[in-house]
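Self-study notes.
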Amino acid sequence: MSQEFVIGIDGGGTYCRAVLQDINGHILGTGEAGLTNIMSNANQALASMVAASKQALKMADENITLTDVAIAAGLAGANIPQAKTTFLSLPMPFARIDVMSDLHAACVGAHNGGDGAMIICGTGSAGTVFQSGKFIDKGGYGLTVGDNASAAWLGQSAVKHVLLAFDNIEKRGLLFKRLTSHFEVTQPQSLIHIISQFTAESYGQLAPIVVESYSQGCEQATQLLKEGAEYLSKLGEALLQEAETSLPICFVGGLSTVYRPFLSPRVEQALCDAKTNAQQGAIRYFSQALVQ
């Protein structure tokens, strides 16, 4: 049965954004909530989706409930099949739900359903090529073994720098001063104790300190950004190699504007602006299923 109302979800490592629209594509309401990574916490992800969806429904000011809407969701962690299966096994309050990764939803939205590539660099990082109706993914493996250049990686790298600076292996510059002041520590052991329970999101919250230090000419912060940009350039070039023909790359995420000046010329020349967002991308991708 087709649904008269659909909610597009963009669920990332730190946020959840929802947009409610009717069958004719008219936007009726929007909502926001917290983290929506189904691999790290499926129950929290569902709770965030419900909260953001309820906000959108309330804004619509119509007699619509969760059981009246179909959900088209792009969610962090959905690229891992086991995480997606676990999430979809939870009791759902919606009329129906279709799930893809947040990266895929963002890519479809950015190119308005056409062929193209995407690099996303927020709390995590990953890239994909969408061509002939198929995705080819690179990265997105999580902070423990990947997510290079991401906010989480940047924050964790900054902490590693501070520890090396405590040992006088690296220079104690502005980044060292800012982070030790932020944590109010004078000994490496104190810092280790603080970060012992850190998540990727916790590390990601340190990224602005690195960016601020860079903007003030900090050599160590600049080096970290250059290292991250080198990875992103290689990622972009790898995506271009996968493409059957020349494709535009959309580069999005909280750190995209910070890294852009450091990207390789080939990747920089391929960049384009996003046409629509991940919420609309998820709705567009699943639109055929929604009317069945």
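Second protein, same conventions, sequence then structure:
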Amino acid sequence: MSFAFNFPEFTEKLIALDGSHPSEGMYQMPLIPSPGTFNEKMDGEMPYAWWMGFNQVKNLPEQLLEGRFHLLQEWLFNYVMIDESKMTELERAVYAAAYNDRDSIRASNAWYQTFHQDIEDSNHYQQLTMPVLGIGSYISYNYMNYGLPFVATDLQVVGIMDSGHYLFEEKPQEVLDVVLPFLAS
């Protein structure tokens, strides 16, 4: 979304998949989950995304996860997907290979570590006027439906409520059924 905010003249359409631009609401995310909300699967009403704080820590995740990133990844697949069996062994291997070394972990965590700057930058952005499609899972749909109208004037938000965070893996056809008509219009 940052690209669209900063370069709207080069952004014809925007698709936000299962999330939106970092906002001040992130400062309200709990350090400790509410009782009964931290279970085997992420609670769609009270999501507990502890890794967002973990990924803010500089240098430690690389040390802990290098060569073992698959352990975190497997846990996350189970936690944020409704049906983690939809993530094939090949896809798991690709994710593990992409994130298993120190530099890749540092690079991926750098995105989380820019949240403060992203939030500050968002105070100066104009509303997006290009067509925006938000696609949310059972975890993010309500948040996207609430938050995206503040940042976009030409907006459609669609929920794929029988999917978790990895929408392309869990519900690829449903995602395509929403994306392709949006791009064609």
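Instructor comment on the second fold: The mean pLDDT is 95.
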